[in-house]
Amino acid sequence: MCRSDVRQAVLAKNDDLAANLRGDLARRGVTVVNLLSSPGSGKTELLGRVLARAVEQGVPVAALTADLATENDADRLARSGAPVQQLLTDGLCHLEARQVRARLEGWLPPDTSVLFVENVGNLVCPAAYDLGETLRIVLMAVTEGEDKPLKYPTAFGSAHLVVITKTDLAGPAGFDESLFHENVHRVNPGVEIVRSCARTGAGVGTLLERALAARDGAPAHRPPLAPHPHGHHHAPSAPVA
């Protein structure tokens, strides 16, 4: 079997596991939100603000955060007051559905309605792996460059929502927001783009609203590279790490 065939077999198996996980969690009333970004995008700080807002509003949320090493992000997110667990990937540059299912066993609080999964900081491998999510959010800081969506079309092309982070630095970074919007919509026409800033709290309420809308079954944007609802992924394959 050639490497391409192995890669496709790995992705197909993951997609089947993800579809089963999505169904099992849906029967428990749990909606999964998968957060993808490069390292340094600020997604941990922003997610912490979203979790804290949910706790303030009495929304039963939880978070699973993934890294290759350390539990630093879990410690940071736990300050929100929401239940949080760390998942160490043992060197993998992405999460897989089997890892998520195994980590949730015996832990996920029974009243959870939204589970946020903070994926490994990487826009390549994680983009090809469905985790059983209902909502996939791709985040990018203004310091990363307006051409990021064109460099990572699988990630941005599979997003139900795109978030610009660290907007307070847009001026000093010389960020061309209109060009960024143009590039996003070249790979994912019609996707909503939300501006956010963890420092000021901008966008936090909107992100929580979008997660709750997904939980409540609101029609979602259909990205061109969305996973097939029955588990067969339409995104181009990524290297298996």
UniProtKB/TrEMBL annotation:
Keyword Zinc attached: yes
Protein origin, superkingdom: Bacteria
Key word Mitochondrion present: no
Spans annotated as Disordered: 218-241
CobW/HypB/UreG nucleotide-binding domain location: 32-194
Record keywords, A-Z: GTP-binding, Hydrolase, Metal-binding, Nickel, Nucleotide-binding, Zinc
PANTHER family: HYDROGENASE MATURATION FACTOR HYPB, HYDROGENASE PROTEIN ASSEMBLY PROTEIN, NICKEL CHAPERONE
UniProt family annotation: Belongs to the SIMIBI class G3E GTPase family. HypB/HupM subfamily.
Record protein name field: Hydrogenase nickel incorporation protein HypB
